């Protein structure tokens, strides 16, 4: 493999950050498409690139495969290895720490984001947009994921000031300024595309292709998806808490009116014991609302607790790169 001259500079302009977690079956296919796409881009636009893989504590052979790739393309490849699994967003955060480019593009390792699209994102970044979001045309995920994701997009739109059409797509471009600001944020739970967006001055969205996962399964279980969405909600808005305060006030007023109504009936109609089951239903409903509110409060408090402990967000074992 002959590396393009432009790609050999030690100061790359374009950094591609890719989190990797148990992707042994798909990595080779990713390399086979990623490097030709980047080499073509580098000579077309005459800029140097680097790829920063972050192995998020994979338990399979991913780390070994990445190490071999660093040896094959040492001029443009670096791999950051974690000791254990810290999650996709922390892996990207570490990628940001080691990326040296003026333009940084994140990408999933499973080929759901076609590497050929990097060129379109680079184009927008070079045109002066400091944040390039993407919209997955014809998204290839399960029906459930698509519905849930649309609902979450909708909710986020209502309760935060972030306006992104498709928050979940990780194929995204950031300017150096935004990446530096994201790195300054010390949050232990975060959602990087949204965080980056809050700092953008000149964002742009483009439509990109989306493909089926090349190999393996999604690394997110339903539970983890719920956790991630709570990160998104709690990290960017306190409106859910305010909604609960208002709901509480409304319910208290309704209960007050009901009490007066019952009191008046007591004097007009005398003692009555009807509607016991209605009372049960109402009580259980209210207990449900209360538990949900308590849980929501817990989501915020749990995050505050994690934050005040100030444990390291991720621990880097080693960085594989050309010495
Ligand atoms: N990933 C990671 N750490 C994790 C989970 C996922 O680095 O704990 C990586 C994974 O290897 C992939 C990307 O994040 O490159 C997106 O994961 P996945 O494709 O499973 O998510 P989905 O596309 O189903 O949302
Ligand atoms: Mg995927």
TrEMBL record:
Coiled coil: none
Protein name: Undecaprenyl-phosphate 4-deoxy-4-formamido-L-arabinose transferase
Keywords carried by this UniProt record: Cell membrane, Glycosyltransferase, Lipopolysaccharide biosynthesis, Membrane, Transferase, Transmembrane, Transmembrane helix
Any one Gene Ontology cellular component term annotated for this protein: plasma membrane
Biological processes per GO annotation: lipopolysaccharide biosynthetic process
Entries under CDD domains matching the protein: DPM1_like_bac
This protein's record includes keyword Glycoprotein: no
TM annotation in the entry: 243-264, 276-301
Residue stretches making up the Glycosyltransferase 2-like domain: 15-179
Molecular-function GO term, any one: undecaprenyl-phosphate 4-deoxy-4-formamido-L-arabinose transferase activity
Lineage top rank: taxon: Bacteria
């Amino acid at each position: 493999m002959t590396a393009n001259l432009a790609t050999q500079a030690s100061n790359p302009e374009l950094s591609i950050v890719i989190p990797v977690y148990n992707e042994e079956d798909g990595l080779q296919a990713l390399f086979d498409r990623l490097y030709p796409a980047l080499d073509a881009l580098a000579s077309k636009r005459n800029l140097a690139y680097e790829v920063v893989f972050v192995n998020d504590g994979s338990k399979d052979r991913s780390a070994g495969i990445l190490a071999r790739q660093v040896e094959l393309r040492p001029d443009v490849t670096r791999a950051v290895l974690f000791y254990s699994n810290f999650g996709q967003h922390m892996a990207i955060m570490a990628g940001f720490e080691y990326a040296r480019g003026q333009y940084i593009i994140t990408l999933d390792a499973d080929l759901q984001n076609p590497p050929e699209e990097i060129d379109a994102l680079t184009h927008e970044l070079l045109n002066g947009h400091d944040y390039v979001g993407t919209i997955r045309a014809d998204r290839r995920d399960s029906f459930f994921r698509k519905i849930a994701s649309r609902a979450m997009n909708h909710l986020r739109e209502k309760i935060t000031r972030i306006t992104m059409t498709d928050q979940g797509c990780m194929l995204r471009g950031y300017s150096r300024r935004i990446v530096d600001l994201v790195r300054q944020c010390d949050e232990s739970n975060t959602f990087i595309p949204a965080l980056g967006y809050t700092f953008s001055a000149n964002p742009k969205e483009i439509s990109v292709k989306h493909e089926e996962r090349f190999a393996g399964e999604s690394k997110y279980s339903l539970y983890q998806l719920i956790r991630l969405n709570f990160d998104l909600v709690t990290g960017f808005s306190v409106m859910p808490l305010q909604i609960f305060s208002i709901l509480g006030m409304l319910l208290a007023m309704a209960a007050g009116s009901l009490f007066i109504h019952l009191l008046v009936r007591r004097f007009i109609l005398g003692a009555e014991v009807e509607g016991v089951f209605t009372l049960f239903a109402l009580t259980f409903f209210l207990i449900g609302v209360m538990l949900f509110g308590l849980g929501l409060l817990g989501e915020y408090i749990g995050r505050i607790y994690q934050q005040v402990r100030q444990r390291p967000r991720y621990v880097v074992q080693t960085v594989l790169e050309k010495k």
